[in-house]
Amino acid sequence: MKIVQSIPALFLIVALSACSAHRGLPGSSPSWGPVDLQLSPQEEALGEFLKGEVALRNGDTDTARRAFEKASTLDPAEPRLHARLAHLLIRRGELEKALPHAQAAVAGNPDDEFSRTLLAGALEGMGAHDEAAVHYREIIRRSPEIPEPYLILSALHRKTGNEEAAQQTLEALLLADPDSIMGHYYLGRLHAAAGRLPDSEDHFREALRKNPRSTIVLIDLGLVEEMQQRPQAAANIYRRVLILDPENAIARERLAALLIDQKKFDEALEHFRALERIEDDPTETRVKIALVYLDQGDYDRAATELELVLRASPGRPEVHYYLGITYSELGEVDTARENLRAIPKEATIFADAQLQLAYLAQQQGEIEEAAIHAEAAVAARPDAPGLMTYRIAIERDRGNLPTAIALAQQLSDQHPENDRYQFTLGALLDASGDRVEAVVTMRRAIALNPRNSEALNYLGYTFAEQGIHLEEAESLILRALAVQPEDGFYLDSLGWVYFQQGRYARAVEKLELAVELTGNDPTIQEHLGDAYRRMGREAEARRIYQTAGDSAPSEQQRLRIQDKLRTNESANRSQDQNL
Fold first, then answer.
1. pLDDT tens digits for 48-75?
2. Are 387 and 370 a contacting pair, CB within 8 Å?
3. How far apart (Å, rounded) are the C-alpha atoms in residues 224 and 230?
4. Residue 141, Cβ neighbours under 10 Å: how many?
5. Which residues contact 302 (CB under 8 A, 6 or more apart)?
6. pTM for this one?
7. What is the rounded distance in angstroms from the CA atom of residue 306 to the CA atom of residue 337?
8. Cα–Cα distance, 558 to 216 (Å, whole number)
9. Is residue 342 a contact partner of residue 315, using CB atoms and an 8 Å limit?
10. Closest listed residue to residue 217, CA positions, set 230, 201, 235, 204
């Protein structure tokens, strides 16, 4: 068989009833008797809270906000309602409105780390750094294992010029957690800024022992190596960065300077100072924390951190981009689009934003909208093959095969050595009905990479479908299976070759395994039904045909399978009459 190649939001129902004995909220014990339709304020508050949670799950933040506001009005002493509302308002960038709710949440539950984090973040975002620092210190006192408060407090100290307090805060983090990557990283930066380069290098290397693939740490270590006049060591680090991230502009620029032996050590220092000036801004620390949350799948907290950054530094393209990704994961599609559309054409991340908009449109079934954004992404970065490949797929899905073929031909001409682009072109030519040219192109892909299992299988199955070159088809598909021995689609192709050769027992063997590996693929099931029928196993053929017909993706296939079922039933009746 040929193959061409949301995270749902967590529905949290907070058990407010846990405090019912103290607060009068409904408890868990049922009470029987006449239904009292007169709800208490606490009961109404619980209903509004649940309504807000459902709205959030569906990405409807406006309804959620109204529900939480009503709930907090009905039950003003419940701190969790205030915390939820403060969280939502901070995510919307409405810090002034969030502040009293965050204060009420902390007053009602001083031990809740999340509520105090919301309060500190709102104060910081509004410029009340001293008040924010008080709450970050309190979070550290109560929950010393949480790294984020140390990082933000240290950044606040640096912003106010208190380098000693900043260093002490990071050292306290490493006392609490000696394995903290971020602790070592920021302490390394602080030592470098103060000219303590050996200490800086030690902390960067310790961070890399925890995460050897961190390009952020590697770049800074490379700059420190340059400042210590060790150009070869720095060059090796930049090469390592480019293996991990071929588009990294700083690594490419610094490596180029080193390779032509310019020895721009002062320029390296300026690079570091520029980065250091950025890091003096606590919002940069928040961005990194948000990216950690994003990587961990904690999208709610990532959104909160990024909204605080945007409030302090409006219009930053990369923050809008991260928010677009975060809100799309939360299912808040409109908010995701709003952030992605806020990124201007001149921003370096514009093409990535257009690609994300195309993904969102495609997920919503808006294929024409997806095509517009895919085209814009390619126009912004015409030398990015990945963007062109995506646009080709969109044009194919639109049914616009001529454009898809033209773009695939262009990509193949630009990268004639790339077997994957030849495969894409061949598959499109086949879909357009130009089977002769498709075969030529698939052979070209295989010549470029004899282990391209997709091309091997595609060409072998193409021959099997037509009942031609069956020995070559078998050889091609066996080569594909040597690369991917448990690929159910390749096994289907091999089974179909055996079917076309009249080797029905072997066909059944391979097709049964293909069905087992792929699940309910109707085409493979239909193939197995055909093989069963040729073996005289009519009952099994009827069963598998019925299953395939139920899940057939096209009306044409469904009707074809129904016709086979009728033929199968007629054969069974004839056998019964003969008996």
1. 888 888 887 777 878 888 888 888 888 8
2. no
3. 9
4. 9
5. 290, 291, 293, 294, 322, 326
6. 0.72
7. 15
8. 54
9. yes
10. 204
Q: CA-CA distance, 36 to 328, in Å (whole number)?
A: 42
Half-sphere exposure of 10 (CA within 13 A, CB side): 8
Q: Return the residue matching tokens 């302090």.
A: 312
For residues 167 and 237, what is the distance between their CA atoms, to the nearest angstrom?
26
Taking residue 185's Cβ as centre, other Cβ atoms within 10 Å add up to 25
CB atoms near residue 232 (< 10 Å)? 9
Looking at residue 17, its pLDDT comes to: 30
| CA pair distance 561, 526, nearest whole angstrom | 7
Asked whether 205 and 221 are in contact (CB, 8 A), the reply is yes
Q: Convert the pLDDT of each residue in 185-214 to its tens digit.
A: 999 999 998 899 999 999 999 999 999 999
Residues in the chain: 579
Element (H, E) at 200: helix 197-210
DSSP 277-303: HHHTSHHHHHHHHHHHHHHHT-HHHHH
Q: How big is the chain by its Cα radius of gyration, in Å? A: 31
26 phi, psi to nearest 5 deg? -60, 135
- Any idea what the Cα angle at residue 467 is, between residues 461 and 471, rounded to 5°? 75
Q: How far is CA 262 from the centre of its chain?
A: 40
Taking the chain, what is the end-to-end CA distance rounded to the nearest angstrom?
39
CA angle 333, 337, 342 (to 5 degrees): 155
Spatial CB neighbours of 69, under 8 Å, sequence gap ≥ 6: 85
The torsion angles phi and psi of 53, rounded to 5 degrees, stand at -65, -40
